[in-house]
UniProtKB/TrEMBL annotation:
This is Acyltransferase. Pfam families: Acyl_transf_3. Coiled coil: none annotated. The chain crosses the membrane at residues 12-32, 44-65, 86-104, 124-143, 155-171, 207-225, 237-253, 265-285, 305-326. The keyword Kinase does not apply.
Amino acid sequence: MSSKRKSLEIETLRGLACLLLVLYHVIGPLGGGLKIDLGSPFRVIADSMVYVRMPLFTFISGYIYSLYKIRGNDFAAFFRGKVRRLIVPLFCVGVPFSVLQAVGPGVNKDVGVTDALLSFYIPVNHFWFLQAVFIIFMFVGLLEWRGLLRTATRLYLLLAFAAAVFLLPTFKVDAFGINGATYLLPFFVAGMIGQEKVDTFRHFFKVIGPWVFVMISLALLYVAATDRELIVDRRSLIGLTVGCVSCFALLSSEMRSKWLTWLGGYSYAIFLFHVLFAATSRALLGRLGVKDESVLVVCGLTLGLFGPVLLSTLFSRFNFTSVLFLGERARVKKPVGQAATAPQPDGCAQG
């Protein structure tokens, strides 16, 4: 199987993860987003995503990390790369967004200015993923650097450890997103295993993989429609099992979509900026008196997906904005007649 084909399939999953993430934040949790009440089909859809949405994002991060993991003893370069990719946008996008939310009129979430300014330490918005996955990268990267993950057995032991931590009570203080890190760690490790054993998974589960995911999705929709309290708790054995099985099923399916692949190429920008555009859509349509839920969801989803794509295209034109707002590597200028060095994949989290 060629690397290009593998890339297309992973980019398709990235695009699917983006679609699920933006749709959820457009609909919003109960009392948030569009404030859609219980009983609405959109509320059922939003609740049913909880076991798949962020696990899939993290699974892909682990998969890509396994492709571009630390080589040799260059942990310092690995650390600097993750700071650039994750922490710089946290300060340049996440904190300003939280401050804007604190002082802006008509927002659904009540955030104090102090909490917003300290959101780099105690997460208050979806940017908790940046802090959480940074911790994961440092933890797994250190193990890799010290040569502790060189065998499949050790990787499976790490998955068992991650599952145990996942099921433990959360920390009282969510310092730097530590609770998010313990929640996401098993899915990240599952992604690493998925990459190492991708041919095995696809050989044995290619046919049943798509059906497994469809059956899981239908079951989640049914449970969310009948008793949402059974499904909203993410940190449970059921949540862990369903999340991992769903990710492996999707990986085994070898799903490819040109549209989702294209969308997946902008996954990080979509993660960073989709809430801003979704909120803008909600505010504009509200001023126009639009109340139809379907129109609000479709418009919010469209703007939440394509707004960040346009913003990413603009920011990527300039080193200053691409580094600060997208965490990209600065392009090195070459003498006339030579092409500039393009950023290479570094296994970073997508949003």
